[in-house]
């Protein structure tokens, strides 16, 4: 009988260890050999260039991690679903991946209205959502525990655009915006940027998501003696507006934010887009002296040879690199909560020349904004003189 008291704690320890093992094994999307991630974004439709480029950049990084032995012996499996840049489809596809496909985390959503639509799902089901291609403040303030952002916010981008023009003596601003969460985020960010400088927005015009019906929005901007119009939309309606504005002899300078999809916009406009100012949240992809740019270009060539390093695929690559770093830091005992806590420990983490910081009270890794413009049908730094090569 004296053996039992000594044996009982050992039994308890064994039972606790076994129970912990069962809990670990039951973590959705994690097995001894795989970590399943889900990507819900536009693979078809007017914004599909953004979704496919995010997929390409992330795929290159995840496949390279797998080639090197995976994450603590586990391979990353990326399951991609198409929401067509439609919030209702984003909800249904997210639920399908979380409930049926049992993904461990979500990665690389594209768009403010679609990402906003799934916030209640990630909060309720405690599913991490990492690296969404949107700068909406709804994903940043207040901090949503499950959401980790890489990119600068639309407030950051709007402020950089306003500062660029104000420093050149421009005072009369207008905004053309997609009438949804994305467009309103850029509109609000622009208004706040102007107010910080003692200025007001002069005029605004809107268009509906999923259309190129921009004539009414243009009409709302004409006749106000605008010096600049900041455009908030994806590449297809923005290209339509640029052409309509040219025909209407709108004299204002034109600018837009990174969500436009710079490379897709350039394909649509070519030299018609000359002098459009575009804010970016990643450096020029051609800046190969930056280690992360050279690495992402090499990884795309190796794993997704049909793709090239664009602004969007570069962001997908960087966000995936951050994801891999967090998965590695979390360790072999991988849970959703431990992953979030790992992200929150990054202090000036060097991602090949880009430094990022995340904390429990700040889930936005970068505030960097890079200004570019179209010149001679190509993308150059904004401060490069016209005609310079």
Automatic annotation (TrEMBL):
InterPro entries: Leu-bd (IPR028081), Leu_Ile_Val-bd (IPR000709), Peripla_BP_I (IPR028082)
Name of the protein: ABC transporter substrate-binding protein
Signal sequence, start to end: 1-25
Pfam family of the protein (one): Peripla_BP_6
Protein family membership: Belongs to the leucine-binding protein family.
PANTHER family: BLR6548 PROTEIN
Gene Ontology biological process terms in this record: amino acid transport
Organism: Janthinobacterium tructae
Sorted UniProt keywords: Amino-acid transport, Signal, Transport
Domain of life according to the entry: Bacteria
Residues of the Leucine-binding protein domain: 35-377
């Amino acid at each position: 009988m004296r053996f039992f008291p000594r044996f009982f704690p050992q039994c308890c320890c064994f039972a606790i260890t076994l129970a912990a093992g069962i809990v670990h094994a039951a973590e959705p999307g994690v097995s001894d050999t795989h970590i399943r991630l889900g990507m819900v974004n536009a693979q078809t439709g007017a914004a599909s260039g953004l979704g496919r480029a995010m997929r390409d950049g992330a795929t290159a990084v995840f496949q390279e991690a797998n080639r090197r032995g995976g994450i603590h012996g586990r391979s990353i499996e990326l399951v991609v679903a198409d929401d067509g840049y439609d919030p209702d489809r984003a909800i249904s596809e997210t639920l399908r991946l979380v409930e049926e496909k049992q993904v461990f985390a979500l990665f690389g959503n594209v768009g403010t209205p679609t990402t906003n639509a799934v916030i209640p799902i990630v909060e309720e089901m405690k599913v991490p959502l990492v690296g969404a291609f949107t700068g909406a403040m709804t994903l940043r303030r207040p901090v949503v525990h499950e959401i980790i952002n890489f990119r600068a916010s639309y407030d950051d981008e709007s402020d950089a655009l306003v500062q660029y023009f104000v420093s050149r003596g421009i005072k009369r601003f207008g905004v053309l915006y997609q009438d949804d969460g994305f467009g309103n985020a850029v509109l609000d960010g622009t208004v706040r940027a102007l107010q910080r400088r003692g200025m007001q927005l002069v005029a605004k015009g809107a268009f509906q998501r999923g259309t190129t019906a921009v004539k009414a929005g243009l009409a709302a901007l004409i006749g106000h003696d605008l010096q600049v119009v900041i455009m908030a939309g994806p590449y297809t309606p923005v290209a339509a507006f640029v052409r309509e504005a040219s025909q209407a002899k709108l004299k204002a300078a034109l600018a837009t934010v990174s969500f436009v999809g710079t490379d897709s916009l350039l394909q649509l406009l070519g030299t018609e887009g000359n002098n459009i100012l575009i804010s970016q949240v990643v450096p020029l992809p051609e800046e190969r002296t930056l280690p992360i740019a050279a690495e992402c270009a090499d990884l795309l060539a190796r794993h997704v040879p049909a793709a090239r390093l664009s602004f969007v695929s570069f962001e997908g690559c960087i966000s995936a690199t951050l994801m891999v770093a967090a998965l590695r830091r979390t360790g072999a005992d991988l849970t959703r909560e431990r992953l979030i806590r790992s992200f929150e420990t990054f202090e000036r983490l060097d991602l090949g020349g880009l430094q990022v910081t995340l904390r429990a009270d700040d889930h936005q890794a970068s505030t960097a904004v890079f200004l570019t413009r179209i010149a001679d049908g190509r993308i150059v730094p904004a401060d490069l003189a016209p005609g310079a090569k």
